[in-house]
Every structure is written in structure tokens, then in C-alpha cells.
């Protein structure tokens, strides 16, 4: 299995709070690969909302994303783009 790693800077001013953490988890769930995020001495399974919220990823934090599996490259790219986006995600049901 392919295992790749990349570093991304949290672009959202509010960091990774509940709403974007849920969206990140939903994105990660679309991949078969195992995906782990790391910040400082903390790590989080990208497919576990509790892990993501307790990661403490504030604006400007550098997040290491490690993906392992058949679609690891696609997963790393998608999660990296999500983390680096500066705009806040739209709440579900709003345009």
C-alpha cells in the first residue's frame, strides 16, 4: 500500500471547529485510505469527529496529513485543499 505525507497550513480563521471538522470527516469518509492528521504532539483519525475536534487546529497551524491506501494520493490532495481554504464552509442547507 502507498503511504504519503504532506504538510498544510490551516487557512480558516476560526480553525477546525465542529462544522468544518464534520465536513472534513465527511470528505475523508469518501476515501478507502487510512488518513491521520497530526499537529504538534496530537494525532487524529480523519474519519473520527471527536479526534478532529480535539486536534486543536487553529488558524495558521501546520497540519501533517498522512494517507495510506489505494487512493492515498487523491485523499491527501483533497484534504490538503480543504485545510488550506481560507473561506468558511457553508452550513448544510444554505446556498
Structural description of this entry:
The protein has 95 residues and is of the alpha+beta class. It has a single domain, classed as HPr-like (Histidine-containing Protein, Chain: A, 2-Layer Sandwich). The chain is 32% helix and 25% strand. It has three helices and four strands. It has a four-stranded antiparallel beta sheet. The N and C termini lie far apart (39 Å).
- Major sheet: arrangement of strands: 1-4-2-3
CATH homologous superfamily designation = HPr-like
Give the helix tally: 3
The CATH class designation is Alpha Beta
What class would the helix/strand composition place it in?
Answer: alpha+beta
Which term fits the overall shape? globular
Number of strands: 4
Q: What number of domains?
A: 1
N to C succession of SSEs: EHEEHEH
Described by strand count, sense and barrel closure, the largest sheet is: 4 strands, antiparallel
Mean pLDDT: 91
Amino acid at each position: 500500500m502507498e503511504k504519503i505525507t504532506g504538510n498544510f497550513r490551516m487557512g480558516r480563521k476560526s480553525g477546525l471547529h465542529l462544522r468544518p471538522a464534520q465536513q472534513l470527516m465527511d470528505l475523508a469518509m469518501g476515501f478507502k485510505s487510512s488518513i491521520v492528521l497530526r499537529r504538534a504532539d496530537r494525532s487524529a483519525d480523519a474519519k473520527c469527529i471527536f479526534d478532529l475536534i480535539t486536534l486543536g487546529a487553529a488558524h495558521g497551524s501546520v497540519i501533517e496529513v498522512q494517507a495510506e491506501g489505494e487512493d492515498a494520493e487523491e485523499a491527501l490532495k483533497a484534504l490538503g485543499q480543504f485545510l488550506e481554504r481560507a473561506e468558511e464552509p457553508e452550513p448544510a442547507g444554505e446556498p
